[in-house]
Design a protein that fits this description.
The chain is an alpha+beta fold. The protein has 8 helices and 8 strands. A 4-stranded antiparallel sheet has the order 5-6-7-8, with no helix packed on it. Strands 1-4 form a two-stranded antiparallel sheet. Strand 2 and strand 3 (35-37) form a beta hairpin.
């Protein structure tokens, strides 16, 4: 038996999620109502009565997490597929040998987004080390965590400089004569996975910067 909780509401990319398991009835980590799922041998949840897919995390995958990682998972700073990515990165069953490793875990994460083209992912998309480092960086930012937990699919997040003096020097703020310089559209939670459009103000060292891309 694993831990089951809802993920991936319908999105502009119509994302699916695959997990090889059987029928599970259990309480979610987030405390939501128990959910019963029937999955086919392929592991794809095709329940037309619900707009939400459902991830089922194997107990062995959860046992492989540290207390820190479990805490981040519970408060939504790590995605519910993180345990599976860690299992893959560390080449533990069922990702033994060439099926595992860091690159394999990144490709595994991207496979959860089958309608996104390879070139539409940001530079660090799917890298579980990046996910964990980000969670560590923001864990004490209560306001940001509250926002992350409140985010819903379809929300637009508008961001801008945290000091007026920065706004005076920012190219986008100067062009738009406004307080914001970036916008993203949330496609999945939690934590949010977003669509963003980058242009001339992007990082020239990032090969994915000048395009519309998926960001986490």
């Amino acid at each position: 038996m694993g831990v089951s909780f809802p993920i991936f509401a319908s999105s502009p990319f119509d994302v699916g999620y695959t997990e090889q398991t059987g029928t599970v009835t259990t309480e979610s980590i987030s405390g939501s109502q128990a959910t019963e799922i029937n999955k086919s041998a392929s592991g794809i949840d095709n329940d037309a009565e619900s707009e939400l897919g459902t991830a089922v995390i194997d107990e062995d995958f959860l046992d492989n997490l540290t207390e820190e990682e479990m805490k981040f998972l519970q408060i939504g700073l790590l995605p519910d597929y993180y345990p599976q990515l860690k299992q893959c990165k560390e080449q533990k069953p069922p990702y033994m040998g060439a099926k595992g490793g860091i690159e394999a875990s990144i490709e595994l994460c991207k496979s959860f987004f089958p309608n996104v083209k390879p070139g539409q992912f940001s530079k660090n998309f799917g890298n579980m080390d990046y996910m964990l480092n980000w969670a560590r960086e923001v864990q004490n930012d209560k306001a940001l965590i509250e926002m992350i937990q409140a985010c819903k699919v379809g929300d637009a997040v508008i961001s801008g400089p945290n000091r007026p003096t920065v706004m005076e020097d920012d190219m986008i703020c100067m062009l738009t004569k406004g307080p914001y310089f970036h916008a993203t559209l949330i496609t999945h939670v939690s934590p949010p996975v977003m669509i963003e459009a980058m242009g001339i103000t992007g990082d020239s060292s990032d090969p994915t910067t000048d395009q519309v891309r998926m960001l986490m």
